[in-house]
Amino acid sequence: MVAPTLISVDVSKPAWEQDPEKPLHNRWHPDIPAVASVKEGEVFKVECIDWTGGQIKNDDSADDVKGVDLSQVHYLSGPIAVETAEPGDLLKVEILDLGALETWGFTGTFHKDNGGGFLTDHYPEATKACWDFEGVYCKSRHIPGVKFAGLIHPGLIGTAPSKELLDMWNAREKQLQDELGTGKQKTLCSCLATRPLACLPEPAGALLGKLGHFKHGAKHASWAAVAAEAARTVPGRENGGNCDIKNLSRGCAVYFPVFVPGANLSMGDMHFSQGDGEVSFCGAIEMSGWLELKCTVIKGGMKLLPAVGPSPLSVNPLFEIGPLEPRYSEYLVFEGICVDERGEQHFLDATLAYKRAVLNCIKYLAQFGYTEEQIYLLLSCCPCEGRLSGIVDVPNAVATLAVPLAIFDRDVRPSGTALEMLAAGVRVETTQAKESDVTAAAIPYDAKLDRCVPCAP
Amino acid sequence: MVAPTLISVDVSKPAWEQDPEKPLHNRWHPDIPAVASVKEGEVFKVECIDWTGGQIKNDDSADDVKGVDLSQVHYLSGPIAVETAEPGDLLKVEILDLGALETWGFTGTFHKDNGGGFLTDHYPEATKACWDFEGVYCKSRHIPGVKFAGLIHPGLIGTAPSKELLDMWNAREKQLQDELGTGKQKTLCSCLATRPLACLPEPAGALLGKLGHFKHGAKHASWAAVAAEAARTVPGRENGGNCDIKNLSRGCAVYFPVFVPGANLSMGDMHFSQGDGEVSFCGAIEMSGWLELKCTVIKGGMKLLPAVGPSPLSVNPLFEIGPLEPRYSEYLVFEGICVDERGEQHFLDATLAYKRAVLNCIKYLAQFGYTEEQIYLLLSCCPCEGRLSGIVDVPNAVATLAVPLAIFDRDVRPSGTALEMLAAGVRVETTQAKESDVTAAAIPYDAKLDRCVPCAP
Amino acid sequence: MVAPTLISVDVSKPAWEQDPEKPLHNRWHPDIPAVASVKEGEVFKVECIDWTGGQIKNDDSADDVKGVDLSQVHYLSGPIAVETAEPGDLLKVEILDLGALETWGFTGTFHKDNGGGFLTDHYPEATKACWDFEGVYCKSRHIPGVKFAGLIHPGLIGTAPSKELLDMWNAREKQLQDELGTGKQKTLCSCLATRPLACLPEPAGALLGKLGHFKHGAKHASWAAVAAEAARTVPGRENGGNCDIKNLSRGCAVYFPVFVPGANLSMGDMHFSQGDGEVSFCGAIEMSGWLELKCTVIKGGMKLLPAVGPSPLSVNPLFEIGPLEPRYSEYLVFEGICVDERGEQHFLDATLAYKRAVLNCIKYLAQFGYTEEQIYLLLSCCPCEGRLSGIVDVPNAVATLAVPLAIFDRDVRPSGTALEMLAAGVRVETTQAKESDVTAAAIPYDAKLDRCVPCAP
Amino acid sequence: MVAPTLISVDVSKPAWEQDPEKPLHNRWHPDIPAVASVKEGEVFKVECIDWTGGQIKNDDSADDVKGVDLSQVHYLSGPIAVETAEPGDLLKVEILDLGALETWGFTGTFHKDNGGGFLTDHYPEATKACWDFEGVYCKSRHIPGVKFAGLIHPGLIGTAPSKELLDMWNAREKQLQDELGTGKQKTLCSCLATRPLACLPEPAGALLGKLGHFKHGAKHASWAAVAAEAARTVPGRENGGNCDIKNLSRGCAVYFPVFVPGANLSMGDMHFSQGDGEVSFCGAIEMSGWLELKCTVIKGGMKLLPAVGPSPLSVNPLFEIGPLEPRYSEYLVFEGICVDERGEQHFLDATLAYKRAVLNCIKYLAQFGYTEEQIYLLLSCCPCEGRLSGIVDVPNAVATLAVPLAIFDRDVRPSGTALEMLAAGVRVETTQAKESDVTAAAIPYDAKLDRCVPCAP
């Protein structure tokens, strides 16, 4: 808590007006210069603004979520150079502590035409829930009757890619996009509505740290070239990045591959809490926050990471978790199999199985006095666990979603009493934050929703 | 432990020569008669033979796995009628205790031409590991240096389908098969080698309880008709079934939809332990075992289960887990994203992401003195957890695989010491059970392996 | 589960009519011959009758508890010789599994004139609760509204003492008894009513295995001499013995000092569940049960155990616990300090502090619809934890008692609602098993109760 | 983290020179005025200096521990008035978060002539270990080879006593002191060396908040009278106070009785980590720290707390713990029985049983390369658990001490390897902080040490 702060932010200022010596960035590129450097073993603190840079407000309308500018995300603090790190090393980053910079956070679902989410075809409108933090706990006026402890973590943390790795990313993601509509398209496009399919490099909204940014003022000579090829931060990749793994929390250690001299570690997208999958996409309890870190280098250690693929760069970080995670003792668990909402059979498709488990859970829990949108938001941010339970029993993958019973102020187990409650039509008194032009009517599954539409230019 | 035994088995006899009053079955069909009935609240014990009916032996050759007759699986005990259960009810089944009937079990990987598995394209040969049970713990002479406590559970437990539900299953699974090669194929066929794509009804090998069986003797008049349409037991479906959920263990309660009068509960495929996903397919530590159960009926309770799909039958069971699961405190966690081994980008594909996490783990742990086949077997049966960590960050799904450190007798965390061990080429002294015609050479990824081949007639 | 049974019992027969080849015993003495022997590494099963030898019945009267013959306890299975064990070795006993032999057990409080208990001065009458086992869970018709999973363990397990150690025991326990009333008496006698103060050797009731027993028939020539000096089994001592540690459960390993050739391991007093302290003395959920064990010898390992005291024999066993204990996540915790019920201050007395914590808990929970006797019984046998929280802050020791909230079917946390319930005088409908001559009136604290009375001759 | 700070401290200043508007206090008395007030439901932060007020330094000598002025302890922040709280209410204090104000803390053992400790008769000299915090973890240069996560908590938190309660305290503690040497002494004085027996009111060193302090300057007219009867803060009592319960940590809620208008809550003695019992007395990892709190009042709720004793004030707080505690999975557990180091038998004495368990553990672990003093310090501050395992098996109480294996960088389980290490005399390279006049020689048990000496005037 009292380690020196390496990078500070001011949450009252725009992302592009933070510390001019240590500006933020929102793209991955090897040429974005480090803004600070640390020695091995040094303990330091890094502050981060929320991933949208303050676009979402603590109020009761979801219009800000609906109109969010996604070209700007995610705002990251860094890169931080670790003095002795060289390509081929393994960088051990110990997450010694984490915290919030404000006493509130938000969870939202994007509108289907601006971001979407795992269940956009069921819940196409933007919604929002604001959460108040009370120390380690949080509550929301928009989803009454639940309370849980946060498992604070960075949704996004990673090392900088080398040029070779960046080129790999851009090539494969473009190919995915290009295949759309050609008959070669892979997998889930026909049944999982998400827009866009991938997020290719996009100079609009690019903030490139010391190279300058999209808003105003002088840019470095290389700005345009870098912005044109810098990777978006949306997906997790070989460098870690936006993995949204809720278990990267207090006391854990992450081992990152090092692709560039100094490793150039960046991080952001702080979450007060998240459910496995972060299903609503906007998604965890998003907040501004801080991390306390220590870095160590295992020289030549990248060879400990297995390369599975055509390139020696085809690796992924690994991490250790310790005894500090909250441990609930009682869960209600929902199953899903890969048969879609139209009744069609898919083949060992864990994504669809999880979609089904999440839907089963939403519709089940909504019976206890909630709207489906409230449960969708809740599952995105509460400490629920998504499991790949069965992945070989053709043709059905089985996924499970386990929700801790202790987060509810009522008994949500199936019982005769629950049936009576259902018959009586009990509802929770609540205000929900929705788009201003949305009626309160239930929104049915939209089987005709356009799917896998490429990014608008 | 001393509850009355409702159904007994004799592990020294073939599956078709068990108690003639309470014969086993290996297909799902509403017309398979119940062999026993219980009252609500009654505590009773059910014994089950292993899923293959004794085809696999406790020896050091994997030839039995290679040649296994999969048309016979899974051998189930039941159906058990619950006296007051009617269609539309919810059947609560409390799993009060479980145990083994013998002191050993097995884990195997099927040959690519007979069963396959999650990683068949990497590990196409049959392998086997036999496990010795010492009370709650197990060890294997084929994978030395690991020991863990079992989390005994039925891989397969479910209620009987109604005719309407059975028809739904057969229609959709046939459609999946039929689409293969038409350009409409939906799925992972292009990147996930598994044979077959689905298991359609197949009279060969059918054991239909009191209706008779494939082996010999008199069959009921309806045998041929039922065998021609009875569903295979391979996948989990709306009735539960072969969900292979490792958490259905001591002290848990499962809520099943009831589709036929009496519910007609069946179960089998007992596992001493399993990892999430059961990746090697043959897959957990398979054994003969027993369960102690209690059934309760929530009248009309099926309406508590959400129907998501075109039919009101499109539901899934849910279950509760309590404080009895083993809780490890330290894990090493592997990440995977949905980029395949050829470097191609897929779209939010959790199956591929998990495949990648499993591969990363196999190749990482193999460095500590194991063959990759040994780790593949181990991950299929040890208490590892597979998580759907991120499912919205286009285009990459992120899956994680968490392995408890306490199961190893050595420190498998990344470190300088691990690097030195790698350099020194340390290997565990071990005998592995493989097919008799396989050389010890490492088997490379076979990118050309035929994929998604339909069942042979 | 299917390991060979080394020692069997028949719960329908008296303790002195069990297997004549492997008779039971209820005293500690080096000359009691081993009834069986095992090799290192062998897995074997041992059955045990309940500690009273069937004196307590599954009915609704506590008269059997009131009149119990305590000279007979505890009936043990063994001694079992471990082939290579020699004095000076350390015997590792792995508790591989455990189970019940019947589907019920009992918890009682002894009458103040026959056994007593931790709170005899508050609850002087005999009471009893019978528990029904449903697999891993138990419930009692005498204490409705609670349900919990058992943590089966042997209340008593230990190695045989050498003659030298036996003499130490007898000398020191006699001295304690002799000091009573002399002004030298140690510590708690003035404030903790228990009868007797110690249990010195007593031929009445002695069952000495192959040397013969008190009931009838031929006794070995040495019977009288051995019975006259054989130690009673009531307290835990240097050899382990009746330590009543609830954590000696599934998957744990105990390291015992070896005092005689073969170690001569004995065990009994099986508990389905127990709370820390086993406060009611009769005390856990007592039952007949079985253990599955494996023994290993660490040659010369007794020197690893520290001898603290005048003799090199002044050691205690140690043990390991693993990840298999049930883990509750929410507890209500009661504090106690060492001020007695008369308001007198004691000095760092953890026994009194714990007595106060237990009393606080009893009186608190009784407000939720129970009698105090019911809660006293419950705390003796449910999985509650007793902690020595502070032991240095003169003059008060602080002890805490943590009760898992999940065992209750109602919310027992302090709240305005709880206050209303208290005001309304809500009570649970229940039958309690008490002595036949006891009225239902509340029994006040008896400050004049005789304390520390020596054994009757 | 960002809640408003109600009371601030400056760790660079003496205790008596903190915020003059909100001065600290180190005595309990109803007339010490509140320094701040809060509304129900308000979230606020309180900072506290370490309990000694900065007397102990981060260096390698234990001379500061040896010469510490104990008349000054414990320095508390508060009293804080809760607006609506009245005598007879129950005050719910939620501990929402906690943290350190500096990056180091200390553990010490007091010299036998100045403070003593649980094992003063074995380890009479002053020692010290300084700990460095790295986020949630800590390490000590004085005890190498161990690392663990903190479970930060206030060693001391409580409400103000009423005059009636204060008088009860003073009377009973004086009586204890007065009985010493009269033959009526109750307790452990004959076997547990501690000085003093109790800490009676003592104007020297008294800091009385707004009434003034011992150091200098103007005192309130009532200062002398209040100082003469204000209770010392050493023991836990009916108001909570110095209970040193390590589980009062993140996310827990404590229910305090209210004795005076406003409740007047005070707190201090922040611990980064503590073992059950805090055996070395100086004892946890002591530090300056902060708490984030929320208070709620249950009107009339004190009647929910059972009064056990002659006065309706004879109550104790209770508390709830949730899913946030670190959960280790593997422990090594030491047993102790109430036979003292001279071999004398005591009667159900849990204090002695725990003393023996702690000694057994110290001497066992010291074999792995430590001095006994290092382990004594470690057990006082690491997350070990002290249990009252058996409290009824006359004459022996059984206490257990469970130490998590994961805090050590080596395997400390009993084994042949451990024996070899012992034979080889392996020692850890370490500097220990001891008194400057102490030799490194092992210090034997001092059976003749004066015991229970009253406070010097």
Automatic annotation (TrEMBL), chains A, B, C, D:
GO terms of molecular function: hydrolase activity, acting on carbon-nitrogen (but not peptide) bonds, in linear amides
Membrane-traversing stretches: none
PANTHER family for this protein: FORMAMIDASE C869.04-RELATED
NCBIfam families named among the record's database cross-references: FormamaseFmdA
Name of the protein in question: Formamidase
Organism: Aureococcus anophagefferens (Harmful bloom alga)
Gene: AMI1
